[in-house]
Write a structure and sequence with these properties.
This protein has about 150 residues and is α+β, with helices and mostly antiparallel strands. It contains four helices and eight strands, in the order αβββαββββαβα. α3 runs parallel beside α4.
Length: about 150
């Protein structure tokens, strides 16, 4: 086992992994259909670091592992002030438009499925959000990540 593998094993203990979406994809070949999977994974340490990764492989477990590894290598740091974000942010990425607003202590996470997973993984306890434009979970996750990345403390 080399040092990079040991570091990734160390990461596994401190990061929370959540699978957002599992897509089964099929490719026509001369010998028949070739089936594979693409899995969208969100990882976070609940202390302000969060990342997202898309893993593709012939089986689901390998896809999850690949997605989680990519997400751990591409983490962003989210500024958290008193359990919420410092200011409002409205961001459009592709077809997805995400509005994130700070919320007072005790209000909890008021967010839809894809946004909820990302902000929980980041460790934000109080936030209000609205997703507009698309119902595609992958687009919403990437838009939420871009919105969190654009925050200024």
């Amino acid at each position: 086992m080399n040092s990079q593998e040991e570091q990734l094993i160390g990461f596994a203990k401190e990061f929370d992994e959540r699978v957002i979406q599992v897509n089964r994809v099929s490719k026509k070949t001369k010998g028949g259909n070739r089936i594979g999977f693409s899995v969208l994974v969100v990882v976070g340490d609940k202390k302000g670091k969060v990342g997202v990764g898309l893993g593709k492989a012939r089986d689901v477990s390998s896809s999850i592992r690949k997605g989680a590894t990519y997400a751990k290598k591409h983490l962003i740091t989210v500024p958290i002030v008193k359990g919420t974000i410092p200011h409002d942010v409205l961001l459009k990425r592709g077809a997805a438009k995400v509005l994130l607003k700070p919320a007072p202590e005790g209000s909890g996470i008021i967010a839809g499925g894809a946004v909820r997973v990302v902000v929980e993984a980041a460790g934000i306890r109080n936030i209000s959000s609205k997703v507009m434009g698309t119902k595609n979970q992958a687009s919403n996750v990437y838009a939420t990540l871009a919105a969190l990345e654009s925050l200024m403390p």
